[in-house]
């Protein structure tokens, strides 16, 4: 008896194996996460003083803003001056090679700037700079 067409074995469906593509995407994701540098903003805009000379700071890890009302902002939160040292110590422990950049408003007092610089020095930070606008 001749075999009919319907008696043939069904062919297995062809599927594309996505595993290698997912591996590549996962490795790229890990690469971008590891190499990305996350900049922490102080959370408030200040009017910085103008300076004739200025240098670019690498490894800026801790940005601290001092507003015209002498309020201290770190990581988008207003901070009481009593806790500045503890917060700088914690952030400095996350990146020991990072620098502290103080963005002081032109109308802020030198006393508040000195308090922040002193707290950073007590926290063990070596690189402390004042952010300024260039001409």
From TrEMBL:
<protein>
    <submittedName>
        <fullName>Biopolymer transport protein ExbD</fullName>
    </submittedName>
</protein>
<dbReference type="InterPro" id="IPR003400">
    <property type="entry name" value="ExbD"/>
</dbReference>
<dbReference type="GO" id="GO:0022857">
    <property type="term" value="F:transmembrane transporter activity"/>
</dbReference>
<keyword id="KW-0472">Membrane</keyword>
<keyword id="KW-0813">Transport</keyword>
<dbReference type="GO" id="GO:0005886">
    <property type="term" value="C:plasma membrane"/>
</dbReference>
<feature type="transmembrane region" description="Helical">
    <location>
        <begin position="21"/>
        <end position="39"/>
    </location>
</feature>
<keyword id="KW-0812">Transmembrane</keyword>
<keyword id="KW-1003">Cell membrane</keyword>
<keyword id="KW-0653">Protein transport</keyword>
<comment type="similarity">
    <text>Belongs to the ExbD/TolR family.</text>
</comment>
<keyword id="KW-1133">Transmembrane helix</keyword>
<dbReference type="Pfam" id="PF02472">
    <property type="entry name" value="ExbD"/>
</dbReference>
<dbReference type="GO" id="GO:0015031">
    <property type="term" value="P:protein transport"/>
</dbReference>
């Amino acid at each position: 008896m001749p075999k009919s067409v319907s008696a043939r074995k069904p062919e297995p469906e062809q599927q594309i194996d996505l595993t290698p593509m997912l591996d590549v995407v996962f490795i790229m994701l890990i690469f971008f996460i590891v190499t990305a540098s996350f900049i922490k903003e102080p959370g408030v805009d200040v009017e910085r003083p103008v300076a004739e000379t200025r240098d670019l700071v690498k490894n800026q890890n801790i940005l601290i803003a001092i507003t015209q009302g002498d309020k201290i902002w770190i990581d988008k939160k207003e901070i009481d001056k009593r806790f500045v040292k503890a917060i700088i110590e914690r952030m400095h422990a996350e990146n020991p090679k990072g620098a502290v950049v103080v963005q002081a408003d032109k109308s802020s007092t030198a006393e508040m700037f000195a308090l922040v610089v002193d707290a950073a020095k007590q926290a063990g930070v070596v690189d402390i700079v004042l952010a300024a606008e260039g001409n």
